[in-house]
């Protein structure tokens, strides 16, 4: 108290101004540092993801395998938001190719990211939420998309089946009915990548347009 009252007024003003500037600058600086450390925008709880997809212009990409969706189900979304959910399942590399690469999981995730980048409904300004079973592969996909210029990529924390994931959050699930899935030709989804990746199909989840 004595230090404050004995200081020159100009010193007090300067100190207060410096603290105010620091107050304004620290959050964006920390956000920038965090973004660079993560390599993508951030993590969302399942409840946050559901709210954003239901009320704002966010798109969720489910990268789980067909087997995982058959076993665990798919997120239940309001009818108005079902066209904001797209399935781009991770696919295993052919056995001959798997023996030639160092990190097959990373390569598979990066291929999925490239497919996502060619979706017609996705642009570099889109808000993209990636979900897998436990969020490990989703982080790689999000980082790869960010490196391609898609800077608004989020990951569902703990994925669909993790300890605090979608299932444990009790947000609602639907069964995955393969017969209801719309299959798009690869050339319609990612024309430049179709030749590179063959005839892999991109599927919309039940109820999606």
Automatic annotation (TrEMBL):
Entry protein name: Rhodanese domain-containing protein
Keywords, in A-Z order: Membrane, Transmembrane, Transmembrane helix
One GO term (biological process): cellular response to calcium ion
Top-rank lineage group of the source organism: Eukaryota
Transmembrane segments: 12-33
InterPro entries: CAS_plant, Rhodanese-like_dom, Rhodanese-like_dom_sf
Stretches assigned to the Rhodanese domain: 54-175
CDD domains tied to this protein: RHOD
PROSITE patterns in the cross-refs: RHODANESE_3
Coiled-coil residue spans: none
